[in-house]
Amino acid sequence: MAAISAVNVGHVVGYGADRYTQAAIEKFKQHFGESINVHFVFGGTAANVIGLQAITRPHNAVICMEMAHINTDECGAPEKFTGCKLLTVSGEDGKIRIDEIEGLLHGVGDQHHVQPKVISISQSTEMGTVYTPSEIRALADFAHRHQMLLHMDGARISNAAVSLRVSLRAITADVGVDVLSFGGTKNGMMYGEAIVFFNPALAADLKYIRKQGMQLASKMRFISAQFGALLSNDLWRRNAEHANQMAARLAQAIEKIPAIRITRKVDANGVFAIVPRECVLILLKEYFFYIWNEATSEVRWMTSFDTTEEDIEKFAELLRKTVG
Question: pTM for this structure?
């Protein structure tokens, strides 16, 4: 917010041709490498859709997890705006496996079938797990051998990097990712996401696609200033580290409650648990969270950059009282 206020002075050229946007792009290059191409948009769905639209044609397909955000939580926007079909695979831990992808390639070259062009992964995953650098490299190598590209939905990439104790580059540019949706909002920004192309040739038409997609901000400096702050002085890392620590604290606080069972490994800032159905309804009156699986009464609890230790203690105490 201080960064937004600081640039709210005087007049600058619009649509990203300002010194604040150029400074933010330089920050991205410090973290991801000099050869990248970066474009700012308003939200995460736009980052995913426009990034995918730039590297596909309507007869292509995008391979992703069943529970991937692009498949379940973007109201069909990826399919509407890219024209591509989403081909999904399943996985208990939220991660795509190569053997699951291989079966989707049987129609390559056949005019009767969509042509797989992109493998899209989420980091961290929708299940709160993280891909290791070696897992990402294996997927990238597989994609490139089959003339495909690797897209990463990095809405929570900062949480993944902190969990793995690596740099942002170590799980993107260094391991073969082609296009990244870099998340700002979920790690402390007021609004704004970035699309990062590690091969600038893939972004040749991006400026037109972004404009048609209604994502070209006239006063872009207000997005750029936030990224400049987030990527300076390890703020991105501190925010994500705090969120991850709060998730670990929540898991520790509830793991000894007999009626509660934590169902997933807590790698980043998500805790998944099975809670008695009647207790879920009581908890929802006080706190907002998603029921992940209605059939099993599995819920998802997310912590964030602004979650406090007091928040965790109050929630855990209510949980203990609710389940008796």
Answer: 0.96
